[in-house]
Amino acid sequence: MINEFRRARRRKATGTIAVTDMMTERVVGRIGNLSETGMLLMATESLVEDALYQFQFQLPGEQGSTLPLELGAHLLWLDSASAPGLAWTGFRFLGVTEQQSTQLRTWIEAPGSRYE
Fold first, then answer.
1. Partners of 52 in the beta sheet?
2. Where are the domains positioned within the chain?
3. Chain centroid to CA 71: how far?
4. Who contacts 26 (Cβ-Cβ below 8 Å, separation ≥6)?
5. Whole-number Cα distances in Å, 61 to 24, 27, 34, 103
6. Where is each PilZ domain found (predicted)?
7. pLDDT tens digit string along 2-58?
8. Of the candidates 63, 2, 60, which has an alpha carbon nearest to the alpha carbon of residue 31?
9. How many Cβ atoms are within 10 Å of 43's Cβ, its own excluded?
């Protein structure tokens, strides 16, 4: 049995949370899971390993509301998915403000969340 130890709890995204690259204004993929410090993204666009990105996405809130976030991110790794044109990518967030961190933590710890 393999024990995995992560510093931050990761909430699985149960619905589609589209991620937009703010420089190109294109949707580059969808969130697989999210923590206060980073995310797993199923990329639908070509991304460059070890590059920096500025992303925007909307976390679903209570009663149909959304929580918009804009965060800098560093692409740490990528791995081709089984479907052509898709890749699993791992990002670390950069320069997260205390307010953004609180918003992420609140969403991650919301009742009914599923974790990976």
1. 74
2. 11-106
3. 10
4. 20, 45
5. 26, 20, 15, 11
6. 6-109
7. 444 457 889 999 889 999 999 999 999 999 999 999 999 999 999 999 999 999 999
8. 60
9. 20
Q: Phi and psi at residue 22, in whole multiples of 5°?
A: -70, -20
pLDDT tens string 73-82? 999 999 998 8
Neighbours of 31 (CB within 10 A): 21
Rounded Cα distance, 31 and 40, in Å: 6
Cβ contacts of residue 85 below 8 Å, gap of 6+? 44
99 DSSP 8-state letter: H
Could you give the CA distance from residue 23 to residue 25 in angstroms, rounded to a whole number? Answer: 6
Beta bridge partner(s), residue 59: 67
Read off the amino acid at residue 9: R
Which residue intervals of the chain are DSSP H helices? 98-108
Q: Tokens standing for 90?
A: 């791992």
